[in-house]
Design a protein that fits this description.
By secondary structure, the chain is mainly α. It contains seven helices and no strands.
C-alpha cells in the first residue's frame, strides 16, 4: 500500500484512535460488540498509512469479527447481556496484550491477550460472586468462550494497531 501524504493521513489516524478508544471502552459493556469498532479502527489506521496491514491480515480479522458477531446473536440472552466477570476478562486481555506488546510480535500480542483473559476469568471465578461459574467445569469454559473471545479479539487488534503506529514512529 502506498503511503499517503501527511495531510490525508492525520485525519485517518485521528479517526483510528477514536474508534480504537471506543472499541476498548466497549469491551466492558456486554451490549456492544467491541471488535467491530476495533476492526474499523484497523481500517482507518491502514488508510492513514501508519499501519500497512496486508490484505491477508485484514481479511483474517474481518472474518473473525463476522463470526464473533454471528456467535453473539446465537447466544442465549442471559449470557449475551451478562456483565458477570467482564471487567476481569476484558482487563486481563488488555493487560496480557500490553505485556505482549513489549515483544513487538503479533504472536506475543495475541498470546498475551489470550492468557490474560484466561487468568482474568479464573481470578473472577475464585471470588464469591464468580463461584457460580463453577471453575473448572464446562459451564466456566462456555462462559469464557462467550465473553473471552470478543475481548481477546478486541485487545489483539488494538495491540496490532498500537504496535504498527509505534514501529512507524521509531
Amino acid at each position: 500500500m502506498e503511503m499517503t501524504t501527511e495531510l490525508t493521513s492525520t485525519p485517518w489516524l485521528v479517526i483510528a484512535m477514536i474508534l480504537l478508544a471506543a472499541g476498548v471502552v466497549s469491551m466492558f459493556f456486554p451490549r456492544t460488540p467491541s471488535c467491530v469498532a476495533t476492526y474499523a479502527a484497523m481500517w482507518a489506521a491502514r488508510l492513514s498509512g501508519y499501519t500497512p496491514f496486508p490484505n491477508s491480515t485484514m481479511i483474517f480479522w474481518g472474518i473473525a469479527v463476522v463470526l464473533v458477531v454471528i456467535n453473539r446473536y446465537m447466544l442465549p440472552a442471559h449470557i449475551r447481556d451478562s456483565r458477570r466477570g467482564l471487567g476481569y476478562i476484558a482487563g486481563g486481555a488488555l493487560a496480557g496484550m500490553a505485556i505482549g506488546l513489549t515483544l513487538y510480535s503479533a504472536a506475543s500480542i495475541i498470546g498475551g491477550a489470550i492468557l490474560g483473559a484466561l487468568i482474568g476469568a479464573i481470578a473472577y471465578a475464585r471470588t464469591s460472586r464468580g463461584a457460580a461459574l463453577e471453575f473448572p467445569t464446562i459451564k466456566f469454559f462456555n462462559y469464557l468462550g462467550a465473553k473471552g473471545i470478543p475481548s481477546v479479539m478486541t485487545a489483539s487488534m488494538a495491540g496490532l494497531i498500537i504496535a504498527g503506529i509505534v514501529i512507524r514512529a521509531l
